[in-house]
Amino acid sequence: MQEELYHFFPNDRAKEIAFLGATCLLEVLRKMLLIRNFEQRGEAAYGQGKVGGFYHSYAGQEAIQTACIEACGVRHWFTTTYRCHALALLLGATPNAMMAELYGKSTGLAMGRGGSMHMYADRLLGGLAIVGGHVPIATGAAFSIKYLKQKELVSFCFLGEGATVQGAFHESLNLATLWNLPCIYVIENNQWGMGTAAQRAVCVKPIGEHFAKSYGIRSYTLNGLDFFNCYTGFKDALHHCLADSKPILIEVVAERLRGHSISDPGLYRSKEELKELIEKDPLVQFKNILIQQGILTEGAYQELDKQQREIAIAAMQFAEESPLPAPIVLEEGVFAPREGL
Ligand SMILES: Cc1ncc(C[n+]2csc(CCOP(=O)(O)OP(=O)(O)O)c2C)c(N)n1
Q: What backbone torsions phi and psi does residue 279 show, to the nearest 5 degrees?
């Protein structure tokens, strides 16, 4: 990440710490640790041959969606990409149902039909695998909010920087701007689209600021390694989106700790770069701030981490013991009608 290129939205960390308070900050840490542990165990299960298909880890980006939910709440509509495990957990999906979905079991979130890329929760419209394909869905959710006059809601759309060069993204921004739709588009720029560096795929930089300018809409650039910067930015964005019902474009500058997916050996990053990334790990940064503030001790951190690990391991056990979907239910829960019906 070339931080000097970006003008991050200003925030006052001391003020945010005082506002959120120790109990809330520890809960935020717990959520980020649950996401990290879930991803680590999910990948381990994949390695054991228990999980098939694709697996895209959110490790390294936890601060972003955790901050969004903390700042804006869970009542809105949310849409995201295949990198969807964190958002589902944050929106109330249980680790058991999510792990069972990874294992393709009948107790899974989507009855074992969707797998890793298709997690759903109460307000989560997916978990969708086509790059850019979910952006019109999020825009449609914003349209429904406006049509139904639900003035306290917005639609959040998380996407990777790779999707910003898709037509669906620009058609969505155009319509959302024309029709004043309350949609907050969040580009999580983790620097890579599979093995292609962002600057080789997208011709503008900073992406969010540039595209927002073309559509004449408000934009934010946030530091995805810093929970507090994300928290303040999301809160401010929600305030404006609710006030004027206009779309907003946020670019969160981030890093992913793992390869694009589990099958990516990540040969395009050097060992030194990876070492640097691990040193900047947002979870560790957040933990260190809480320790400095006297809110947390190293011992308490280890204990909290252990508890979340145990939850993820128990979820593996649950998934392991759950039945596979019975062949007879194969046609249940799918939209395509059988010929002749
Ligand atoms: C329309 C379409 N084209 C290609 C792919 C294959 N593909 C899957 S992920 C990906 C890269 C996307 O990168 P980005 O949008 O930056 O998101 P990230 O994976 O970094 O979170 C590609 C090309 C796809 N799923 N959909």
A: -65, -30
Q: What is the CATH number of the domain that holds 94?
A: 3.40.50.970
Buried b (16+ CB within 10 A) or exposed e, 249-266: bbbbbbbbbbbbbbeeee
Q: Is 160 touching ligand 1 by the criterion CB < 6 Å?
A: yes
The whole-model pTM stands at 0.97
DSSP 33-91: HHHHHHHHHHHHHHHTT---S-----TT-HHHHHHHHHHH-SSSEEEE-S--HHHHHHT
**Which residue, by CA, sits nearest to atom 4 of ligand 1?**
131
Q: How far is the CA of 65 from the centre of ligand 1 (A)?
A: 19
What are the pLDDT digits (tens) for 48-101? 999 999 999 999 999 999 999 999 999 999 999 999 999 999 999 999 999 999
Q: Which domain range does residue 8 map to?
A: 3-320
Task: Give me ligand 1 centre to Cα 197, in Å.
Answer: 12
Question: How far away, in angstroms, is 302 Cα from ligand 1 center?
Answer: 35
Q: Do the domain assignments include residue 189?
A: yes
Residue 107 within a domain: yes
Q: Is residue 19 part of a domain?
A: yes
Distance, CA of 122 to CA of 80 (rounded, Å): 14
- CB of 211 shorter than 6 A to ligand 1: no
302, with CB counted inside 10 A (0-12, 13-18, 19+), is exposed
Measuring CA to CA, how many Å separate 225 from each of 62, 67, 164, 182? 9, 11, 21, 26
Q: Per the structure, how many domains does the chain have?
A: 1
